[in-house]
What we know:
Blueprint: H1 3-24, H2 44-50, H3 53-61, E1 79-83, E2 89-92, E3 96-97, E4 105-106, E5 114-119, E6 126-131, E7 137-142, E8 152-155, E9 160-164
Amino acid sequence: MNRRDLLSTVAVALGFGMLSRVFAGEHDGSAAGLTETFEITKTDAEWKRTLTPAQYDVLRKHGTEPAWSSPLNKEHRKGTFLCAACALPLYPSRTKFESGTGWPSFWAPLDGAIGTSVDRSLLDVRTEAHCSRCGGHIGHVFDDGPAPTGKRYCMNGVAMTFSPSN
């Protein structure tokens, strides 16, 4: 291999490395490394034991479930949506709306339930939403929601459970 081929190979490898970091999601904070402190903390091994693989991927590794895959998209009963990792009440059902995005969407969380951080993944800057008690990644917040807040809390259903009320 000559020097030119070697340099080309190194450049391509570095480029792929940078792209993989972008698409894997570089966050200013991650579930395990947010600058906030949380009431509930566990080691990575403990989270892996207590969450399903899909929950772990979303809540702890900032994954995203496939659009239209969550049963919570069709959940329209009166009740509360809870964090799947720590059972903190996050959203009242009265704030849920049909966004057409394929993920459960809400126009407002319960007071103090959601924290936010900057997410610089996917070649964009977004606002990440996480559980204020355990730091689990729930989804993202956008400024294209309905009144009265104008917000769309676009959440991963696998990161939540639902508790119906009478």
